[in-house]
Amino acid sequence: MLNRFIAVYLREILILRRRIKRQILSMSVSPLLYMIAFGYAMGKGARFDGHTYREFLIPGLVAMSSMTQAFAIAVDINVARFYWHIFEEFQAAPVSNTAYVAGEVLAGITRAMLSVVIILIIGLFFNVSLDYGTVAFWLAIALDSFVFASLAVALAMLVKSHADQAMFTSFVITPMAFLGGTFFPVDRLPVWAQKILFFLPLTHTSKAIRSASFGNPVNYSSYLLLAIIGVVFFFGAIHCVNRARD
Amino acid sequence: MIRIERLKKNYGAITALDGIDLHVPAGELFAYLGPNGAGKTTTIRILTGLTRRSAGDAWLNGFHIEKEELKAKKRFGLVMQSINLDQELTVSENLDIHGRLFGMSTSERRRKIDQMLAYVDLIDRKKSLVKQLSGGMKRRLTIARAMVHSPEILFLDEPTVGLDAAIRRRIWALIKEIQKKGTTIFLTTHYIEEAEFLADRVAFLDKGKIVVIDKPRSLMARTGTWAIDQMDKGNMKTVYFRTRQEADAFVTGQKESYTLRRVNLEDSFLSLTGKKVKC
Predict the structure, then answer these.
(1) Which residues, 6+ apart, have CB-to-CB distance to A27 below 8 Å?
(2) How far apart are CA B79 and CA B144, in angstroms?
(3) I want to staple B3 with a disulfide (CB 3.0 to 4.6 A). Which of A100, A172, A200, B59 is the partner?
(4) For the segment A208-243, what is each residue's pLDDT rounded down to a tens digit?
(5) Looking at the whole model, is its pTM more than 0.80?
(6) Nearest to B192 by CA among B239, B243, B107, B261
(7) Chain A interface includes B93 (CB < 8 A)
(8) Contact map slice: B 103-142 vs A, CB within 8 A
(9) Inter-chain CB proximity B73 and A89 less than 8 Å
(10) CA-based nearest distance A21→chain B, Å
């Protein structure tokens, strides 16, 4: 099984390596714009919990970017499935659904980690240097990307076209990116809104990453919740791969 | 060896396969001939695990396609109708990923990749990106990829569709070479000459059912040896004859223009199903 899992992962990494310049550029654009527009211009002078808005924003962008980049694996899977028909190569090979999902999810996590490193470098250019050396910081990112890469694989198997995939991104991922504590603290919203946002994985990731970056105590419940959601999505993805056969 | 028993596939109210029974012995080159929508690709997709069967059973070299799925999948190589290669990877990377998917060791992969690329005459393009190859090269690469793990059965789904005549003949020679090594080949095609040239046996498939299975020569002999095509009230009419003398006698005194030719598998298909293969 290990050899097969590595094959699935290696394929994605070889493609990523071939696109690396374009990929780094595209991963840099959004965080850079957010930092200029919100962190530098609009957020100038604003402070949250004793930190500048730029310091508040960087962990949020890390959470958001690890989510969007991990979820972006769905686009690559869809292109492989609907356009190049490469997914059939996996389906016809003696590869278990678990090995396939594990390979794709790990590829999603790798992309997410790359995007996080880019944001941290961008942060340095804006004189933002937080505590990134903790296990809590990187574990929160790993769990966040695990959740969304697993969700991406599951949805990539369920959608019938590229358009379906884009619709899901518009209705779920984009609202979550803006409401999950990336740009403002969720506790500034009305209580009823906070209750709804509690169920979004990104809310917990933003909190956990921000807390780790600021050197605050670790909230273990956020990590546990993300791990549970990730495992549920991972097994859901395995089930969905089986359903992808017509 | 491929064994299929009462295989059925329904898509809602549409019946794609309607109780197929088939036995292809080891080493045979078997052609599945029929018009578009007859069920050729559906059969291959079920046998290779891409599509679920509705009913019936099938075994590949003794392994059930669903109950022993991973074991069955190790037995075959698959060349799809579409060129499903990773365009952004190199020729050797495509084969290497395939070898890993089939659990081959590093040394085994290296040896077989070079061997197969030499076999399909692409060894000098080993480091090229797939997107830089021509259509014929890509098709040869898909065949090489399907053969990297030394499968006992090779499924070829319309392997020469869209290729020009010269490249098609080159692919045919390659397929014949593969068969000589003892590989069982299951070929779907709607090119009559392809089935005539390559196949040991041919099955005619129409509306999800096998109409007849026989050797190409035997099938053609059932129809006749000579055929005359002529226009009859705006429609093409074909008449079949056992001997050349019979055919010559038929056209004696004919004022309409006509074409005298040898009977081919298209004629056999037409006489058995009432329709042409290339619909």
Answers:
(1) A65, A69, A114, A115, A118
(2) 9
(3) B59
(4) 999 999 999 888 999 999 999 999 999 999 999 988
(5) yes
(6) B261
(7) yes
(8) 103
(9) no
(10) 14
